[in-house]
Amino acid sequence: MIQNRPKYTYRLRPGYGTDRLLIEFNGLEDPEYFLFEILHMLGLAGFKSKEMLNLWMNDEIQVNLSSQNGPILVSLDIYGLVFIVGNNNQKDILRIDELLQKSGAFVKNDINYSSYRTK
After folding, report:
1. Taken in order 24, 113, 65, 108, is the CA torsion positive or negative?
2. What highest taxon heads this organism's lineage (predicted)?
3. What is the pTM assigned to this prediction?
4. For residue 50, is pLDDT > 80?
């Protein structure tokens, strides 16, 4: 279970070329275990798991979750990055950001929004 001391860092940032926010975790020692932990935390917060896809061709795991606000996607990519995306569910992205900050286990990194603009 996630401990009550800052252990993980994350970014609340826009996707490249869009104003839709996502949450990005990187620098994880054990990304697969972290995925298990974050899914457990989201389950406790009321998110329901719809399906887990193991995209072995891309070496990626995607988990579709939902809440009363709509769907979100949690993914672990080939580089060990974990993303939480809610393209049409920005309300839950902001809610998850709030949960992460309150947990004590996460530190939110500041970002430069202009770095995510495309030309």
Report:
1. positive
2. Bacteria
3. 0.86
4. no
Q: What number of H helices and E strands is found in the chain?
A: 2, 7
Structural domain count of the chain: 1
Query: What domain range includes position 66?
Result: 19-108
Do the beta carbons of residue 80 and residue 45 sit within 8 Å? no
Pair 64, 42: CB distance under 8 Å: no
**pLDDT at position 46:** 95
Is residue 117 assigned to a domain? Answer: no
Query: One-letter amino acid identity for 43?
Result: G
**Length of the chain in residues, anyone?**
119
In this structure, what token pair is assigned to residue 42? 């989201």
List the CATH number of the domain containing 85: 3.30.310
